[in-house]
Amino acid sequence: MAPEASASGPIRRVLVTGISSGIGAAIGSALLDAGWQVIGLSRTPPAKADERLKHIAVDLSDAEALAAALAGIGRLDAFVHAAGILRVGSIGAQRLEDGHAMWRLHVEASVQLVEHVAPSLPDGGRIVLIGSRTANGAAGRGQYAASKAALVGLARSWALELAPRGVTVNVIAPGATETPMLTDPKRSAVAPKLPPIGRFVQPGEIAALAAFLLSPAAASLTGQQIVVCGGASL
Hints:
This protein is α/β, with parallel strands linked by helices. The protein has helices at 22-33, 63-71, 96-117, 142-162, 203-213, and strands at residues 5-6, 9-10, 13-17, 37-42, 53-57, 78-81, 126-130, 168-174, 225-228.
């Protein structure tokens, strides 16, 4: 099937997970503004309606449900895996089920998405994974950090495999970002710290970087973890 076309050329199609809120919603909105056709995956629909936005309700933690959703996606030029959860727990209070839930959503869903989408991406396609500055380690967030650190290993490995086709794979690693996850009661024992710039990172700032990584200008940028933390890593 030939790609749909507009006056400026073929319409670019991108899959965005976690599109109903937070960083995923901001990325979806930014890409719509940039002219992309967006397919959004999340359990609940996004607040923003647009004729170029198709939402598919799915629990990404359910491998079979995700497979069924992906089966009808069609041609894609890129995908952004922004869906995520945070479960905290210091030594002595860590729950294996929390680790399993984060590993499934952050790591296994990434693998499932790549297995389905990457082989059919056009040359020059784009893959962006949303990681975390916490991937370097943080007290009380060991299991979360481990799942986000795994994304870096995956991205670098996939970047090497896909480089001959010009397909790039990168990780955006936000610091504390002003999203619903920031005020989640489940993380009350590990409160976020205000970064040196005096405010939290804004979702729109992450979305702008994601849009750049999907653009032709970022064709040589691959296999990287880009930390956006307001100076918290300094």
